[in-house]
Specification:
Mean pLDDT: 79
Oligomer: single chain
Number of domains: 1
Order of helices and strands: EHEEEEEHHHEHH
Strand content: 5-15%
Number of helices: 6
Structural class: mainly alpha
Largest sheet: 3 strands, mixed
Strand order of the largest sheet: 2-6-5
Radius of gyration: 16 Å
Length: about 240
């Protein structure tokens, strides 16, 4: 996936394999840490011919996805919209916390307290290398959706409802920006998104009503696909 004002090269149409979700949790009340870690000083990678091999490329895609998400939601919500205050990478268990709750490794989260998104930089960079740059746009898009939910005062009864809506909103973000040409879907982006979504999701037997449930792979797929194909109306917005 690349950011440039160009016609769409390929639409996200092969969606039957999509599933899963990032292990996120809605934010709680706690001030953010004072500084962000620098991912370029903490991550290393081997050469990969698809252009997802260096920390610099990863950082560029993270920044691009943030700027495009801000642009997208500014247009959708109007002049009252305020961008999420901080995007914070971290690398150790408990390095950051939300409402006094330490954030674990291998995770990404929106925390409403202090209004920040935090992500394990080593985990995200490894996924970037192994899956591709399209994964970064989904990662940021899903977490940004939680920030928008907070701004709109959306608070579902069950975690799974909150998460499925965020998946739908991430799909709308990617789909709408691709249709208008801000994002160019490349030939391998469909498979990258499929791989990224299929890599995570609730284990079989996870109760849908349990706190922290995100949904089955099939539910995750359907929510993302609905948003991608039908924009925010599919998400109840």
């Amino acid at each position: 996936m690349r950011v440039r004002p160009a016609p769409i090269l390929a639409l996200l149409t092969v969606l039957v394999l999509l599933a899963g979700c990032l292990p996120t949790t809605p934010g709680q009340e706690s001030p953010p840490p004072d500084r962000a870690a620098d991912p370029t000083t903490r991550i290393t990678g081997s050469v990969d011919p698809d252009g997802t091999d260096t920390p610099e490329e990863f950082e560029q895609d993270m920044k691009a996805s943030q700027l495009i998400a801000e642009q997208y939601w500014q247009r959708r919500l109007g002049g009252s919209f305020q961008a999420i205050r901080q995007i914070l990478p971290y690398e150790r268990d408990g390095e950051l916390d939300c409402a006094g709750q330490p954030l674990p490794r291998n995770n990404a989260v929106y925390c409403s307290a202090g209004d920040f998104i935090a992500y394990d930089v080593n985990w995200a960079f490894a996924a970037f290398q192994q899956i591709g740059d399209a994964f970064v746009y989904y990662l940021l898009g899903h977490e940004y959706a939680h920030g928008v939910q907070a701004r709109l005062g959306i608070r579902k009864q069950f975690t799974i409802e909150q998460e499925l809506q965020a998946d739908c909103m991430a799909g709308a973000f990617i789909g709408d920006m691709a249709r208008q040409g801000t994002l160019t879907m490349q030939d391998d982006d469909t498979q990258e998104l499929a791989d990224g979504l299929a890599a995570v999701g609730d284990d079989p037997g996870q109760p849908w009503f349990a706190p922290g449930s995100h949904g089955t792979p099939q539910q995750r797929f359907q929510s993302f696909a609905d948003g991608y194909e039908r924009s925010l109306t599919a998400c109840g917005l």
